[in-house]
Amino acid sequence: LFALNIGSSLASNRTYIILGGLFGCSAYLISAVIKDISYLILSHGVIFGIAYGFSYGPALVVLGRYFDKKRGIASSLGNMGVSVGSLVFPPVIRLLLDSYGLRGALAVIGGILLNLCVAGALMRPVTFYQDKTDKIDHGQKVWATNSDVYDSNKVKIPSNDEKENHIIKADPINYYNLSNVVKNSDIIQTSSTQKQKLQGLDKRIQTTKHLCKKVVHFKVLKNALFRMWIPVCFLGIIGCVQIVIFIPPHAKDLQISDSDITLLVIIVGASNFISKILLAYFIYINLMPKHILIALSLIITGISCMFISFYTNFVTMTILSVIFGVFGSVYFGLFPAVLVDFVGLEHLSGAMAINMLMQGLGLSISNPILGFLRDMTGSFHASFYLMGTTLIISGAILFLEPLCRRMEIRRTAAQYLQTQIDIQPL
Questions:
Q1: How many Cβ atoms sit within 10 Å of the Cβ of residue 424?
Q2: pTM (global) more than 0.90
Q3: Is 329:79 a contact under the CB 8 Å cutoff?
């Protein structure tokens, strides 16, 4: 939320991705040396959470701004790294644990996370690719972006002398009003230096207010399509993230061997990889709207969870792993492109921040509930039923898109008419 809203005015997405790599490495290194498990709340809970927020959201925003017509394909292929990681990391982590133990494995993984810094450094801002000409005159530039050329005579950057003159001449009314209000006090002196200090203080106050307003982009909440999306991301994230976490312990309860459990996780990653390729093809041929693809995938994944009592051995658990690998990753591959379709590129950062906030709330609330159900019932069946229910509900909500789009069109039309009425001369 910080990096995508108020933080966006303090540093670039590129910077936050690099910071995410540093925080992620620090989290694992701290986890490798601590001796009290309670400190894991700080290292893996807080510090790694900051790393995730600093790297994941800004990376999606950068990816969304790089592409226009092929944004959906780019999002799907960009998330293919998750699939590759699911294929590679289970055996790598197993090897690290066998070779270096838990602490050594955590330290090595922390070093691997430093690659985020390299990835962030390669994510140049879109403005880098704009054609820039040299300065024509002091305080003037011509900027050329594709076919649009802006004349420097129309857009002029003031020189330093002009800025100083502007500061000296700036708004004497506020100063004299303040002098009248506090004329019986000697706190404020009517000197030129004090005047400039007051003006600087006022500017800082206005800047602070502006930054506070940017903590949450409330304007995007007026969008009916985005309001529909909020419960989708809140409920859908529960199953999309938690199922792959609950598959190994459930397989353990079924007396499946550790090597076969590792194979199940690899199968999820392989199915995920193939799914991303097929998803990119479906988007390319425009088979159906992207939000419908997400809706169907959520519902299918949810239904598969409802049959958890029938998954009793390695073969049936393989079926669940394939279904989740194929359909459970569609949400992550397409939701950035769907957000752009719903709110527009100019509101993507604010929408992404709220989206990640709701996802975090969904996971924070669901984790203890899913664990409580396991402790109360003695099995993971109730937990899978809950995840399946949330997935089906979130998928069904997306079929309300036509209704919400009509509401948004009416709102936009009314706002446009109000604007036209306001600018009409009397």
A1: 6
A2: no
A3: yes
